[in-house]
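User: Hey, quick favor. My workstation is busy. Could you predict this chain's structure for me?
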Amino acid sequence: MAGEPSKFRSLSGPSRAAERVLLSALTLVGALWALEAHQLFAPALLKEQYLGLFLALALGAVFLGVKSHGRSPAHRVPWYDWLLCLGGLAVGGYDVVMYPTIAYRLAVLTPDKVWLGALAILLVLEATRRLVGWVMVALGAAFILYAKFAYLLPGPFSAKGSTWERIAVYLYLDTNGLFGFPLAVTASIVVAFIFFGQALYAVGGDKFLTDLALVAMGRYRGGPAKVAVVASSLFGTVSGSAVSNVVVDGAITIPMMKRTGYAPHMAAAIEAVASTGGQIMPPVMGVAAFLIAEYLAIPYGEVALAAVIPALLYYLALFVQVDLEAAKGHLSGLPRGQLPQFRRVMARGWSFLMPLLVLVYTLMIALWQAGKAGMAAVIAT
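Assistant: No problem, here it is.
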């Protein structure tokens, strides 16, 4: 809501430096892993070791940069969050250092595994609470309790219970626990595509895509709303995030829609729906698409290719609805003097098409691994 304080801290000095180091390291190790640089080590870094490093950096950054509650200091890190940060680094660092040794003895419950496992679970739940809220924490806690007390439930819900020690170690070190598919997809694929989207945004690719949409649709009936639809579909090809889509496109299209007669709530709704479609718009889709590819053990490019027709139908339906609303409200397009010229747009931004072509080729034709394809697009940017 407007006026609601941010849950993120605005740090300075050593605290800010520590946060930047963690976030920069997180991006760097994600990029190196996607480029398969880990295979240069002798012996090669195990996937679980990389995920432990990723988890350590992510937890550390969360506890430094995200407030524990509304009245928590916004410009400094309290002592207890420094402790939680160190705890996050410890549980991830233990996995990085010890996993080659403990991988052959996962079933052996030693005190260090049990205590660090319990700490890791608590830290992940607390980080989840800060970023997402209590609902996800309650859901995770419910499944943990089920693993312990399932034998008390009736009928088909009944199962053999486990001990707290075994639950802690299993969730901490097993590849079906913290180091399972969701973290692996985030650490090896999502990071690469976030990097690509931010790189394209940093060099002005977002303005190029918005200008293309203005050239294509700005002059027609309900032009600003159609620009929002087209711009969101274009930015969705490189973002896969509804929030990022709204931030980039909405800052331009929502004021334009309001100036040409759209009610504020209608302008916001059009942008929200158009931006949400970015999650199913290939080649860069939402996290769920990467999980589908991992669970089905198929190339991500096949998932993206299968999504082309549904995504186009989604935006076609939205485009038709926007046009009908514009006709009902007698809403005109933008004056030609306010629209960019196609030749100038292409002269300034044709180079932004190269990383998109690289991404489409590597993902859908060459069928590269998704993370590697994302980094190839970053290099092309």
